Structures are given as C-alpha cells and as structure tokens.
C-alpha cells in the first residue's frame, strides 16, 4: 500500500480490483436470482397444488366442501415445508459442502514436508574427532538438490563441502547462484535428489528476510527458548540492540507490529540475528544478516557476533555466513564461491587470492550476483513452499478482543518458557498492556442508519418506494387467493342446498386460476427486484470501502494488521453478498404472509385480535431478550476470526524459521487455541438460535390452541369453511412465526457485517486538496525543508525534528545515519505519508498546497523493499498505459533486464517471487526511468544487491538522471561517497550536511566516525570523496 501511494497508483489499482469484483458479483448475481426464484416457490407451490386438486375434483364432478378443501390445504402446507423449503435447502447445502470437502481434500493430498529428509543425516551430538584430529561439523558429498523435482535442471549440483567444527565459512557468489538454497538444503527444506549430507550439532538459522511476529521484541528474540537474563542481555548488547531498546517506547517490551512494521529495516535484521544467536546451538546458518544494516553497525555485528573474536567464536560454534560485504572475507576461515548452483572455488582467503583467479574482480562480480542468487532462491523458496503471506490475512495481535478468554502462562518476569505451550505468535499477554490496538467492537443493536445506508447504496428513493409497492401488491394478491377459496367453498355449499349463487363453478375456477397466475408472477418479480437492489448495494459498499482504504492515511495500516482488514473484505463482504439478502427476503416474505394471515383470521373471528396482541407482545419480548446477546456474539465471532487468519499467515511466512527451531507443535497448539476460541463463540451463536426457535414454537402452539377452542367456546353457529380457513391459516402461522423470527434475528446479525464495512467507509482520509501544479512542474528540482517535523501519531513525539535544509537543483545527495535515525521518515515526509508540521517546497511550491496525486506522480522512488504486483511486466512498469512497447523495452534494456524477461506480458507471481531481489530492484529502477521525473529518491535501494548490480544501478542513475535531483538513503557508504552533498541524520535531526570531502576533514565529525568504522574500506572511501571533490572543483 505504501508503494501504491508513493507511485500515486490508486486509480489503476481501484480499476483492477473493481474489475475482479465485477466478475465476482456477476457470478453471485446468477446464484442470487436462482435463490430468489426458489424462495418465491415457497409462497406459490402450496396454492398452485391446491388449485390443481380442487380444479380436478370439480371437473370430475365431485362435490367440494370445506372439510375436504381445508384438510387438503393443511396437508399441502406440511408437504410444502418438506418439498419446497427443506429439500432445496438440503440440496444446496449438500452441493456447497461437497465443493468445500473437495478443496480440503486436494489440499491434504499435496506433497507433505518429510520430517526425515532423504539423504540428510542430522546428529544432535557434537562431532567426533576424526583421525586427522579435526572434527567436521558439516559434510556434503556429491549432493544434487532441486526445488522442483519435475524440472530437469538442478538448483544445486555436485556440491562437495566439509566445514570443520568452530570454523567461520563465508559463502559468496552472484545473484541467483544458489547461496540461500545451500542453507535451505542444510535445513532439510530443499529436497536432495542424490548425495549425502551429514550434520553434527544443533542448528540455528537467521533468514535473509527477517521474520517477526506480532508480540514483544523480547518474545521475538526468545522465540520458545527459556529466558536467561544474563545471556539475553549479552546477546542484545552484541547485536547492537541496547540503544534501540532505549529509543523504543517500552524498551524490549514494545509490541512489534505485523511483520515488524513499526521497526526500521536494520532493527528487524538485528532482532532476527539476535533470535538466532540467543538459541544455544553448535552450528549457526546466517543468511546475509549484514545487508540491511549500515556500515558501522555491520562492522560491530561482525566483530562482536560472527567474526573470529565474536561471541559465537568464543562458544566454538561453526558459522556459515552468506554475505555481500567483501571486506569481511579476510577474517573468514574458509571461503566458498557459488556460481550457477555449483561450488566453483573454495579455500582460505590466501589460497584464493594467490590462485590464477582475479579474486577482487570475481568478488565484485560475485558480490553482485550473490545478491541476485540469493534473492532468486529466496523467491523460489517462497514460491515453492507457498510461504507467501499475501493470500492470507496477517497476524493480529491478540488484542483482538478476547484477552479474558485465554491467558498465556508465563513465569514471573513475563517471559514465555518452552513449557508454556505458546510462542505468543500472537500473544495476548503482551498485547493486553497495549489495548489501544484492539479491534473496535460496536455495541448494542444495529442502528437504523446502517439499514438506511445499505438500502440507499442499493437503489434511489423512488426505486425503493416502487419495490415496497410491488411487495405489498403481491401480498394482497396472495391473501386474496386464500380468501377466495373460502368464498368458493361457500358457493359450492349453497349450490348443494340448491340456493342461488353469485358465481358458477366454472367462473370460480377461472377467477381462482387468474389469482394463482398473479401470485406466481408477482412473487417471482418481487424476488428478482429485491435481489437486484441487494447486489447493487453490495457492489457499491465494496467499492466505497476499497476506495476509502486506498485513500486513508498510512497510520491506519501501521495500527491495523492486514488480517483485520482482509476479514472485512472476505468474511463481511461475503455475508453481505450472500447471506444477508437471503435472510432479509425470507423475513420480508414471511412478514407479509403473516400479516395477510392475521388479517384473514381477524376478518373471520374478530375476538382473536386479543390473542394475537398477547402473542405479539410475548414474541417481541422474547426477541428483545435474544437479540442483544446474539448480535454481540456475531460481532465477537467476527473479531475472533482475525487472529486465526493472522496466526496462520505469520506461521506460513516464517515456516523455515519455525521448522529450524522444531517448534511446529507449539505453533500448531497455539493455532488450535485461537481456533477453539472462535469455535466456542460460533457454537454459542448456534445454540442461542436453537433456543430461540424452541421458545417461539411453544408460544405459537398456545396460539393455535386459542384459535381452535375459540370457536367452541363461542358456541354460536359458524360456517365450517370459516373454521377450516382460520385453523389452516393458524397452522401455517405456527411454522412461520418461528422461522420468521429467526430470519429477523439472522438478518439483524448479518447486518453487523454492513456495520463493520461502513466503519471502513469513514476512515480518516489523506489531504483532499485538488489544486494542480503547473503541468511542467518541477522544472528545476530544488527541494527546501523549512522547520520540518514529522509525527507518525499525533500524540507521539516527532520522529523528524525541525529540519532546515535546501537541496539545489540536480544535486546528488546521500542520506546516511544509524538505523532508526529518521532516514526513511525523511522520504515519507517528501511524499507526505504522515502528519507534517512545517513546509517542504519543491521549486518554490509548498507540497501541502497541491493534490497528493500530482505531488507523488512527479517524484520517482525506488523503495527499500522492491514491490512487484501479481500482474504482467507491462502493468508493473506502466499501469496507466501511458507508454508504448518500445519505451518499455528501452527502459528494461537500460537496466540490463531485457534478456531476463521473455515478454512484456510475462506474469509476475505473488510479490515478485519469480524474480530475485536484485532483479526486482532493477524493475523498480526501470519504472523510474520511464517516469523521467526531476526528483528521484532511492530508499536503501541497493541494500540487497551484489556490488555489480549496485554499480549498474549507480551508473544508470548517473547517466539517465544526470540533470535530476537524486536523494539516496544508503547503508553502504561507497554508494554515496561521490555525492554532491551528504546529509547525516541522527535521532530525527540533521547532524551534518555538506560536501563529503569537507565532512571527512572534521576531526570528530559523524561521517568521519562512520567511515573509520568500516576498517579496511575507510581509505578507499576517503579517496573516492577527495577525487570527486577535486574533479568538481577543477571543472
């Protein structure tokens, strides 16, 4: 969503979702019209069968009388209940159940993950010392492995590798070469086709993309391990988290949002590393943990944790490190170079540097490709194992409304132990402190406004009035046909006594026939009309909600997990599409029939008005008693479903980490607990519905008795037809009151879904200003920050504090600083993604005075996490269809992706998982080249690519964006050392802003300290800065 906002792509996305929704509604509409027809049959089957029976009797010359007609009527009523109501219901429910079972079955029949991988021997004990006196921790012999066993080419081929106990083994290689796959092989995630792998010792794993679940920072680090204060403090100190804990509002008790949304990229990476290091193990698999942190912190992590003098080395642990940071290789005991799924070289640093291989050049290339490789395998991994976390709503904190129902057991200091059977993947215990994030639950009955909004979304006022008239008219015809049977039997009775009659038998037959045809036509038409209105309403509500979600502030997404948002779009929209119209039409039809019946009974026997009044009062009272708890249960059921989705989604995205920790059972148990809470609420909802039915039946039976005995008690002469009609109508009423009241209750319950959807149609929106800047703006690309402060939450302290900076046209500015210093927030401010105080001027125009769409479409960005959407390459580059094929191919050629893409209509899979991280970054660069704006922002765009891709991106920017203003947020200092200016951020303030060469001359300057921290690289960085300075000053 952040990317959609930064690119100002809301409109094309709304169009895509709108189109998908239109297709969905089309299918639902057919089903609804069918349902409307079959619900109408409920009303006319009994009448039409009765008509055919009477007509046959009359035409065969039989005498018809009240006792025959009304006995037949009540039998047909019983038959109608079974044949016209329950039987179709049984068929439709059966069909739906079958479809669901088939889907579950096909899922269960998919290939499972073997607990015991073929060809892999994992001994938990320490390795035995071999004859040579050295123990091997990991041995791979002639290993071939493949993600997709159906494809001929192997992901990894002929891998031979021995890693001795306690060694630091660095794995390098180009993008997409198979580095991450090597670790997945050791974790038994990548299937081995042949060869043997032997591992001695416990494994601990840190993934390339840090995986965090909703819970405290501490629980994310402990992740199922018991809390040992001394060890915990040492690990967090080594992982440079101490300062972060001071910055976070509640230290390590701070709640991490979904996927760690509230933390910076570097903080997420360090927490992920701390989790791996905290677990006591003898082998640590570290998948590029240093790429997301800045140089200074990277050096600290290497020295304190990974390197030969680090914490893991003192524990004599074996470390397998994938990295792109070439300057650490000198300290590695063993270096493995992976290319195209094979180990091309391995040896010590000295051996490799002395070999004929141009080691430095290879490293440059490798470093690049490494990244790509990495990303590619990550992508294959996520693709294969469907770890994708988009299909499913995401982790909700268990704030989701039911802390009292379940407590996570905890020992005194609040840490979870392994025995507590809960990882708190969504631990309530943490969240209860922070209840501000709980999902809102409406109280009491559904207000009239909700009903009004629903029907107004479905039709205009005139349309609604017309619909009401049609319904009333159809009921008049229905009751008229019932009453006419009574008149007809009276006529026949008179005829049998040879008295004068108003109609002949045939005339009666024709009149009754016409009425029955009227009943059929009117009921079918009213069903069609009603479902048309409902379908339109659900289409309008969905579009309104989606439009509102796209234009709401970013803060909404930071505080609401995607599970909660998706719950509204899936479950609540589903209820509005399917269940609500059915419940309402049932209730309307039954209400109309009931009023018809009551009027007929009262015309025949006015005394019954009193009984009806008493029954109505009792029914109303029972319903009032029932509705409050039932609506609240329904809301609670909706709220309890979100954490189930979220937990599932979180578990899927972190499945490699969970399996590496062998915590599958605990995660399953936790999922079961969340599922139990949801099932409990569901079961209560069903029970209360059943109880209601029972009580209403009792009341209706009393009413039937009152009707029957009223005639005998009166003792006066009454025509038998009247008695028959009254009793048969009262019997219909008995079955109907119960069903009707339950449908009223059901429609009121389902209406809570409309209420929940409407909540999302009046969210706080971003600025509504529509003023457009001049078409050619910005022509220069000058950016001024005037006393700028930024807050993510109006009540919290500012994240950026009083910035005053001017960036002249076509300057290339590097933004550096430690993680959490406010570098990404600066970019958020430029795009106005949060609450700003102060001004930002671009070419003299204040960005707050023009429309957000025009502002964002005039600034290009290559984001930190390159996001691709599940669509064609063409759509990913140009959703507005502004450019021709030639332009798109030229942009792809500029970023050297022309060969990697089969065609512009090639489909990108979810989140771009069929491209490596490096390739995804290049596609984002191609987007920026197409837009050709005067201002370009790079948000740590080269953190995940190897040096070669990095160099390619930098060269492209220098040539293609020569006359543009470029802001680069970077962790790798060498990417920004040749900038015109460098801005050093610290704690939300601009600490230094000047030419890099001059900044490096300051004795205690912030930039100087950062450069010195890189160690071996420092000299080359200073050289780049001074060369650039001299070149510019010469010109």
TrEMBL record:
It holds the Pfam family ABC_membrane. Residues 140-365, 783-1012 form the ABC transporter domain. Keywords: ATP-binding, Membrane, Nucleotide-binding, Transmembrane, Transmembrane helix, Transport. GO terms for cellular component: membrane. SMART domains: AAA. It is found in: Membrane. The chain crosses the membrane at residues 78-99, 464-489, 509-531, 607-627, 692-713, 719-741. It is a multi-pass membrane protein. CDD domains: ABC_6TM_ABCC_D2, ABCC_MRP_domain1, ABCC_MRP_domain2. GO terms for molecular function: ABC-type transporter activity; ATP binding; ATP hydrolysis activity. Residues 1-80, 455-753 form the ABC transmembrane type-1 domain. SUPFAM superfamilies: ABC transporter transmembrane region, P-loop containing nucleoside triphosphate hydrolases. PANTHER family: ATP-BINDING CASSETTE SUB-FAMILY C, FI20190P1. This is Probable multidrug resistance-associated protein lethal(2)03659. The lineage of its organism: Eukaryota, Metazoa, Ecdysozoa, Arthropoda, Hexapoda. The gene is l(2)03659_6.
């Amino acid at each position: 969503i952040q990317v959609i906002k930064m690119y100002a792509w809301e409109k094309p996305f709304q169009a895509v979702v709108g189109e998908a929704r239109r297709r969905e509604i089309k299918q639902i509409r057919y089903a609804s019209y069918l349902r409307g027809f079959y619900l109408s049959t409920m009303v006319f089957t009994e009448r039409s069968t009765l008509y055919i029976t009477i007509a046959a009797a009359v035409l065969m010359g039989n005498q018809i009388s009240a006792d025959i007609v009304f006995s037949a009527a009540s039998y047909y009523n019983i038959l109608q209940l079974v044949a016209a109501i329950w039987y179709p219901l049984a068929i439709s429910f059966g069909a739906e159940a079958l479809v669901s079972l088939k889907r579950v079955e096909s899922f269960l029949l998919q290939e499972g993950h073997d607990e015991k991988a073929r060809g892999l021997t994992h001994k938990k004990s320490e390795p035995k010392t071999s004859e040579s006196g050295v123990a091997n921790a990991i041995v791979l012999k002639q290993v071939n492995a493949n993600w997709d066993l159906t494809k001929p080419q192997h992901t990894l081929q002929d891998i031979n590798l021995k890693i001795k106990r306690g060694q630091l083994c660095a794995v390098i290689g180009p993008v997409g070469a198979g580095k991450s796959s090597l670790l997945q092989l050791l974790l038994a995630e990548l299937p081995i086709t042949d060869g043997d792998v032997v591992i001695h010792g416990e494994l601990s794993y840190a993934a390339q993309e840090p995986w965090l679940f909703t819970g405290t920072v501490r629980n994310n680090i402990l992740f199922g391990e018991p809390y040992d204060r001394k060890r915990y403090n040492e690990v967090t100190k080594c992982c440079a988290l101490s300062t972060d804990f001071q910055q976070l509002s509640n230290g390590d008790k701070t709640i991490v949002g979904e996927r760690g949304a509230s933390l910076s990229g570097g903080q997420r990476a360090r927490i992920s590393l701390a989790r791996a290091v905290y677990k006591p193990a003898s082998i640590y698999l570290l998948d590029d943990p240093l790429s997301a942190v800045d140089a200074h912190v990277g050096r600290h992590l290497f020295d304190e944790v990974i390197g030969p003098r680090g914490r893991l080395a003192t524990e004599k642990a074996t470390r397998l490190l994938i990295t792109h940071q070439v300057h650490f290789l000198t300290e590695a005991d063993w270096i493995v170079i992976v290319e195209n799924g094979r180990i091309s070289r391995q040896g010590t640093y000295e051996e490799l540097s002395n070999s004929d291989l141009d080691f430095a050049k290879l490293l440059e290339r490798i470093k690049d490709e490494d990244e790509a490789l990495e990303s590619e395998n990550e992508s294959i991994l996520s693709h294969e194992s469907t770890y994708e976390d988009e299909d499913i709503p995401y982790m909700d904190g268990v704030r989701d409304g039911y802390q009292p129902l379940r407590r996570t057991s905890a020992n005194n200091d609040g840490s979870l132990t392994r025995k507590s059977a809960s990882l708190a993947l969504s631990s309530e215990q943490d969240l209860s402190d922070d209840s501000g994030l709980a999902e809102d639950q409406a109280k009491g009955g559904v207000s009239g406004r909700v009903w009004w909004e629903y029907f107004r979304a479905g039709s205009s006022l005139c349309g609604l009035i017309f619909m009401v008239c049609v319904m009333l008219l159809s009921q008049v015809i229905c009751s008229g046909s019932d009453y006419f049977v009574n008149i007809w039997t009276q006529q026949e009775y008179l005829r049998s006594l040879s008295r004068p009659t108003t109609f002949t038998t045939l005339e009666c037959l024709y009149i009754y026939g016409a009425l029955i045809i009227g009943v059929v036509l009117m009921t079918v038409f009213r069903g069609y009309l009603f479902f048309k209105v409902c379908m339109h309403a659900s289409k309008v509500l969905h579009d309104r909600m989606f439009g509102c979600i796209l234009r709401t502030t970013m803060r909404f997404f930071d505080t609401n997990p995607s599970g909660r948002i998706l719950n509204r779009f899936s479950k609540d929209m589903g209820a509005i599409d399917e269940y609500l119209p059915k419940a309402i039409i049932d209730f309307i039809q039954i209400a109309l029939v009931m009023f018809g019946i009551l009027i007929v009974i009262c015309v025949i026997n006015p005394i019954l008005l009193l009984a009806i009044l008493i029954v109505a009062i009792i029914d109303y009272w029972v319903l009032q008693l029932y509705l409050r708890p039932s609506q609240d249960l329904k809301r609670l059921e909706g709220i309890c479903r979100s954490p189930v989705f979220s937990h599932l989604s979180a578990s899927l995205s972190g499945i490699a980490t969970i399996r590496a920790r062998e915590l599958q059972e605990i995660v399953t148990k936790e999922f079961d607990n969340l599922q139990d809470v949801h099932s409990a609420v569901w079961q209560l909802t069903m029970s209360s519905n059943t109880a209601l039915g029972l009580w209403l039946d009792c009341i209706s039976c009393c009413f039937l008795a009152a009707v029957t005995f009223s005639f005998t008690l009166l003792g006066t002469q009454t025509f038998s037809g009247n008695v028959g009609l009254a009793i048969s109508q009262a019997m219909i009423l008995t079955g109907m009151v119960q069903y009707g009241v339950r449908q009223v209750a059901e429609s009121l319950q389902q209406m809570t879904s409309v209420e929940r959807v409407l909540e999302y149609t009046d969210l706080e929106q971003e600025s509504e200003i529509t003023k457009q800047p001049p078409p050619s703006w910005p022509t220069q690309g000058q950016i001024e920050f005037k006393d700028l402060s930024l807050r993510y939450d109006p009540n919290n302290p500012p994240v950026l504090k009083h910035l005053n900076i001017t960036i002249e046209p076509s300057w290339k500015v590097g933004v550096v600083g430690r993680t959490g210093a406010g570098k990404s927030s600066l970019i958020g401010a430029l795009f106005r993604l949060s609450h700003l105080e102060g001004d930002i001027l671009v070419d003299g125009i204040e960005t707050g005075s023009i429309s957000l769409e025009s502002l964002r479409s005039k600034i290009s960005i290559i984001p930190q996490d390159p996001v691709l959407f599940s669509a064609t390459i063409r759509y990913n580059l140009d959703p507005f269809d502004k450019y021709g094929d030639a332009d798109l191919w030229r942009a792809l050629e500029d970023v050297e992706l022309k060969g990697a893409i089969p065609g512009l209509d090639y489909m990108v899979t979810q989140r771009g998982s069929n491209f490596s991280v490096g390739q995804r970054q290049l596609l984002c660069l191609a987007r920026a080249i197409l837009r050709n704006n005067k201002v370009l922002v790079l948000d740590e765009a080269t953190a995940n690519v190897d040096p070669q891709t990095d160099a390619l991106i930098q060269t492209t920017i220098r040539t293609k964006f020569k006359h543009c203003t470029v802001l680069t947020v970077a962790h790798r200092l060498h990417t920004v050392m040749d900038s015109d200016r460098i801005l050093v951020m610290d704690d939300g303030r601009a600490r230094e802003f000047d030419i890099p060469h001059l900044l490096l001359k300051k004795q205690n300057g912030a930039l100087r300290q950062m450069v010195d921290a890189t160690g071996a690289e420092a000299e080359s960085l200073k050289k780049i800065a001074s060369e650039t300075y001299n070149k510019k000053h010469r010109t």
